[in-house]
Write a structure and sequence with these properties.
The protein is α/β, with parallel strands linked by helices. The protein has six helices and seven strands; from the N terminus they run H-H-E-E-H-E-E-H-E-H-H-E-E. The longest helix has 17 residues. It starts with a helix and ends with a strand.
Length: 203
């Protein structure tokens, strides 16, 4: 699995995340970021062009060295970008040093998602915000049945991605208060396309 995980999977992730149907989500979520921004699981850097003038600095955190290498060569915003090769479960930043944390299709994959959310809360300033768009657990029982059945296999071939994580309750259990969340299916196979989009603040 070494060659697959280290070489093939990063390229597949980059290809999948270039889906044009994801663009409106990126525009809304990334467009609301401001100040000093920490992006969790920045991948191959596809979000970087969407950051606007209210952003002072971008800290792009990604555990995969191959995806980080792709991100460094991607088109970037006009803001300074600092690439950090690290895990979201142990963010190498000071407490209360971040204005905005951004996650886009990332919480599905992080092995220790609860620890990662705790770390996001730690590094956020008291008035900071978490902006997110994630796919996750559907409210429809039939779709959930497929999500639960597919996840053990899907996780193995997709770099740890879970189809069935309950994103809203995960964020709330991580010490955040949801300010806004919108849910619904994006076009595509329903087990993979139930979206959660919104914002939250530390409790």
């Amino acid at each position: 699995m070494g060659v697959y995980n280290d070489v093939i999977l990063p390229k597949l992730c980059d290809l999948a995340m270039r889906n044009e149907r994801l663009r409106p989500y990126r525009e809304r979520v990334i467009g609301a970021a401001e100040g000093r921004v920490l992006e969790i699981g920045s991948g191959s850097g596809l979000n970087l062009p969407f950051y606007g003038a209210r952003v002072r600095e971008i800290l792009a955190l990604e555990p995969s060295p191959n995806l980080l290498a792709m991100a460094r060569s991607a088109p970037q915003s006009a803001m300074p970008v600092r690439f950090i090769e690290a895990s979201a479960e142990a963010i190498p930043l000071d407490d209360g040093s971040i204005d905005t944390v951004v996650t886009t299709w990332t919480l599905c994959t992080i092995p220790g998602a609860a620890a990662a959310l705790s770390e996001m809360r730690r590094v956020l300033k008291p008035g900071g915000k978490l902006l997110f768009v994630e796919h996750g657990r559907s409210p429809d029982r039939g779709v959930r049945w497929f999500q639960d059945g597919l996840t053990p296999i899907w996780r193995r071939i997709s770099g740890g991605c879970h189809l069935n994580r309950p994103i809203r309750s995960m964020i709330e259990d991580g010490g955040f208060r949801i300010d806004r969340v919108e849910t619904g299916y994006m076009q595509g196979p329903k087990p993979m396309t139930f979206m959660y989009e919104g914002s939250a603040r530390p409790n």
